[in-house]
Amino acid sequence: MAWVDEELKSFIGTEHELNDLTSLATVLLPKSAQSATWYTRLYPSSGFEERLEDTNDLKSIILDGNGAIKHLNSLENPIIFCIIDRSISDDTGAEVINQLRNTRGTPLSLADDLLWSPPIGIEALAFTVPL
Fold first, then answer.
1. pLDDT higher than 60, residue 38
2. Measuring CA to CA, which of 50, 52, 83, 130 is 20 to 30 A from 18?
3. If you write DSSP's letter for every residue of the chain in order, what string do you get?
4. Who has greater pLDDT, 55 or 18?
5. CA–CA distance from 40 to each of 23, 31, 91, 123 (Å)?
6. What's the pTM value of the predicted model, to 2 decimals?
7. Are the CB atoms for 24 and 4 separated by under 8 Å?
8. Would strands 79-83 and 60-64 be described as parallel, antiparallel, or unpaired?
């Protein structure tokens, strides 16, 4: 998992925010007990099948990329976020999400229900499904 350690050293922000850049480790693995994400676990998608039982007690999961999103139907956590890159030609992750939304989902309004508007260039869907 050396590549994960390297990725965690990456910084979040734009060139206009050079003084306020934050590392991914600060967001995902903060050391403050008061942080909302103070007990975050990271799993690489390559070995995620073997670790599915480890995730049963988690309230929220973030699936990043098509490699991880293929496990969406195997999870029963209350809140699941899926992040996909629409700039790549492989749409299997988007297809899994849309199939779940269309067959079992009840749409949520980002603006009205979640009080959030995505930034420019970000596509977001929100929906609930019965467990």
1. no
2. 83
3. -HHHHHHHT-EES-GGGGGG-EEHHHHHS---TTSTTTT-----GGGHHHHGGGGTT-SEEEEESHHHHTTGGG---SEEEEE--TTSS--HHHHHHHHHHHHH-EE--TTTTS---PPTT-----EE---
4. 55
5. 15, 10, 28, 25
6. 0.64
7. no
8. parallel
Q: Over pLDDT 70: what percentage of the chain?
A: 80
Share of residues in the chain with pLDDT > 90 (%): 1
Look at residues 49, 55, 44 and name the one whose alpha carbon lies nearest to residue 8: 44
d(CA 64, CA 70): 10
Dist CA 37 CA 32 (whole Å)? 9
Distance CA 67, CA 56 (A): 19
81, 61 contact by CB (below 8 A) = yes
Place of tokens 């999961």: 61
Tens of pLDDT, residue by residue over 63-120, are 888 778 888 888 888 888 888 877 777 778 888 888 888 998 898 898 898 888 887 7
Return the sign of the alpha-carbon dihedral for residues 78, 63, 16, 6.
Answer: positive
